[in-house]
Amino acid sequence: MLAQESYGATKNFFTSRFGNLWDDFSRTKFAFAGLDDFHYADDIGKHTTRLYQNTSEGAEYQRLRQKLYSEAGEQSGRKVSREFSEEAVENVSRDISEPRSHFVGKLRGEDVTLYDIEMKKINYVKRDRSVLKELRNDFNKSVRKDFLKSISSDIKNLKSHGLSETDIQKLKDGLVPKGYQVHHELPLDDSGTNDFSNLVLIKNDPYHKVITNYQNSIARTMKIGESKEVLWPIIGKNIYN
To answer: Where is the signal peptide (predicted)?
Structure first.
């Protein structure tokens, strides 16, 4: 993009000084100078030097070189600045209903991005504490263990996620591998259940901690029975690391 803008600036400036001479040095003929390899606005000066030296207009070139060099860079800079500003406005004004493929949360005061995650709009309802306690007890007593055993048979999937033989043996025994947690996609504090489809084996630091911090920032001020519409990170698979 930057190279294309610099190229356009060069063509306009060159044509205004030398008229049809530009046509004699078309994009194809200019390829010897490495036009397709532009990476920065400054490159335009180097390649234009070689072009002028091949036109016998060396004296005129020396007079115009600096202006050409600066105009190309200035136009490129304005283009990049404008596009950056437009992107920033677009990000700020993005509607809550727009799907996203990543989640940005906080951990120890720093932004952490979790990729390959769908952000869904949900109605978070603070659950009755007695129901929450019962669900949590069931999870701790048997659900977690049964879930871990259920995913232990897909060895290929486990190894593709980097789990070691030791980790896999722990799963077969219904134990959580070191550095992992079993995460509820929709939290029990809300409308989440202990169904296996709602559970994920997730790397604790930073992923589970980041999502937990996000949940706490939403739920800590809510009263029992209160509801709030929020965007929620959904992993959509049984392992995330």
So the answer is: none
pTM of the predicted model over 0.85: no
Q: Which of 50, 66, 96 is the last residue of a domain?
A: 96
Classify residue 10 by burial, with Cβ atoms within 10 Å: 0-12, 13-18, 19+.
Answer: buried
Q: Are residues 107 and 212 in the same domain?
A: yes
Write down the number of H helices and E strands in the chain: 8, 7
Helix H or strand E encompassing 216: helix 209-219
Measured distance CA(176)–CA(150) in Å, rounded: 13
Per the listing, tokens 């489809």 go with 197
Q: Which has the closest alpha carbon to 14: 87, 56, 67?
A: 67
Give residue-wise pLDDT tens across range 6-56: 445 555 555 555 555 444 444 444 444 444 443 444 444 544 555 445 444
Q: What is the pLDDT of residues 102-112, one digit of tens each?
A: 999 999 999 99
Q: Which domain holds residue 210?
A: 102-234
The SS3 of residue 126 is: coil
